Amino acid sequence: MRYTCAVLGIAALCLAATLVAGKKKNPDDETQTLALPKDPPAVAVGETRHLLFTVSPLSGKGLLTQQTRDALKAILKENGGAPVVHIRAFVAGSGDVRRVPQIVSEVFTEKKSPLPSVSVIRAGGLPVENAQVVLEAVSVAKKETNSGGVQFVAGDEAVDKDPSASVKPLLDKALAQLSSKTGGAAALQVTCFVSELNRPVELTSAIAGRFPGANIDLVQTQRLPWQAFADCEAVTRGGSGSAAKLAFTGTRVAFGAQEKDAALAFQRLDKDLAEAGAGPADIVLTNVYPLSGQVANLVRQVRPASAALSGVIFEGLASIDAGFAVDAVAWVSR
Question: pLDDT tens digits for 85-94?
Fold first, then answer.
């Protein structure tokens, strides 16, 4: 009797083991490793005559991650879901600017779309209270949008050494200088950098009055600027370029404030452009984002022809060791 029970017991154990072994694994029981978002490309290319320029609406709702995702959603809605080739982000507040390229990568990966190149700069403020980010996007439409091509126009800085001086007269002067440079061409986008945003509606109205129909971006570059200033740049229809495509780089950061650091940043920028089929001679606009006047002067010495915005000092960059960042737009010559 005892022998029979023992045999039956062993058989029951074997049956239980077989059932357990044959049971399908529950995916929830396994440890899952989330894939890290891919880094945006150093440079991206778009067809010149199909380019769209969009500025995201400002929102004070939520923190940086939510605002960035909402801004991307708004851009994709406005451009009809067209592929985005470049994004320039100005981040205000205390959010981690390094998160922006990651969020861009996550959003476009979710949509199974190619990643755009990304430039990220920390600014001093934006025109809407609690707004932490504004995005400028360059997309490629299916239909031709600019039969005569596009032109990138860098303005001239209007300055008053008194940091408490009103910025409105300086903005008017900067806009007049920019208008003279555009030659009356229709502006697609106008970006103005100012030292303070005490009356943002008045400042925005001044830009819209000078360039009706253009997408407008207004950014305070530092929280506590050492002088009052205004500087504007524009993208217009037309221009003298004949290349079918344009290359847009993300920001390259100079780690340090020495001449060798600046030279290395420009070498990396040139390498990025070369991969897209463009060279230094093909550059139509170089944006430089220095963190001090000393660094701005250094950039002028190292690469004077490229220092389109070297006089405009910004609040910060993605690295605490950075002296400046630089990005560029260039014709693709091959």
Answer: 999 999 998 8
Please tell me the CATH superfamily of domain 242-334, with its number. RutC-like (3.30.1330.40)
For 52-91, what is each residue's pLDDT tens digit? 999 999 999 999 999 999 999 999 999 999 999 999 999 9
d(C-alpha 106, C-alpha 72), whole Å: 11
38-143 and 242-334 share one CATH topology?
A: yes
CATH architecture of the domain with range 150-240: 2-Layer Sandwich (3.30)
Residues 89 and 234: their CA atoms lie apart, in Å, by: 16
The one-letter code for the residue type at 326 is V
Amino acid at 258: Q
- Look over the chain and give the mean of its residue pLDDT values, rounded to a whole number: 88
Domain boundaries, the chain: 38-143, 150-240, 242-334
DSSP category for residue 313: -
144 phi, psi to nearest 5 deg: -70, 130
Q: pTM (2 decimals)? A: 0.87
DSSP 209-255: HHSTT-EEEEEE--SS-SSEEEEEEEEEE--S---SEEEEE--EEEE
Tokens of residue 56, six digits: 């995201």
**CA–CA separation, 269 and 253 (whole Å):** 9
Output the CA angle 281-254-90, nearest 5 degrees. Answer: 90
Q: Which of 245, 219, 233 is nearest to 187 (CA)?
A: 233
